[in-house]
Amino acid sequence: MNIISQGIDLVECSRIAAILDRHQKRFLFRVLTAKEREAASRFADAIPHISGRFAAKEAVLKALGTGWRGQISWKDIEVTNNSLGKPEVQLSGECSRIAQKLGVTRILLSISHTRTHAVASAITLDDKN
């Protein structure tokens, strides 16, 4: 197993809350997949959870070395949790193509948040060895 790259992102929850106040449906449907929206709806205060997902997507893009450009879509990165609660990443579209080109076979993801901040770290791996 080889580490290819790493990305990290920090988000202020108040920034996401302000965006949601102005553009809730537009933001949620643009940034989150249906599974991610469903998961967020289970929280009384979804802002830290949504902020964590936003940070995770940014961290993954940093690990892929792309930023938001070209044909990349927010929904190319889907963050779900396995049965134990561990966050997992599924790539599609342009992000999947970029990952394949880089030789990425797996992405390790960690997300943490408080009421005020969310942070995520993504590590891309080549599991072929």
Can you put this structure into words, describing what you see?
The model has no long low-confidence stretch (mean pLDDT 95). The chain has four helices and five strands. A three-stranded antiparallel beta sheet has the order 1-5-4. A two-stranded antiparallel sheet has the order 2-3. The protein has 129 residues and is of the alpha+beta class. The protein has helices at 13-31, 34-40, 47-64, 93-102; strands at 2-12, 77-81, 87-91, 106-113, 117-126. The protein has a single domain (2-126), classed as 4'-phosphopantetheinyl transferase domain (Ribosomal Protein L22, Chain A), CATH 3.90.470. Helix 1 (13-31) packs across helix 3. It starts with a strand and ends with a strand.
Biggest sheet descriptor: 3 strands, antiparallel
- Low-pLDDT stretches are none
Strand order of the largest sheet: 1-5-4
CATH architecture term: Alpha-Beta Complex
Shape designation: globular
The radius of gyration over CA amounts to 14 Å
Strand content: 25-35%
* Helix/strand order, N-terminal first: EHHHEEHEE
| Number of DSSP helical runs | 4
Mean pLDDT: 95
Secondary structure category: alpha+beta
CATH topology: Ribosomal Protein L22, Chain A
**C-alpha end-to-end distance:** 5 Å
Helix content: 40-55%
Q: State the CATH class.
A: Alpha Beta
Task: Give the strand tally.
Answer: 5
Q: Write down the domain tally.
A: 1
CATH superfamily: 4'-phosphopantetheinyl transferase domain
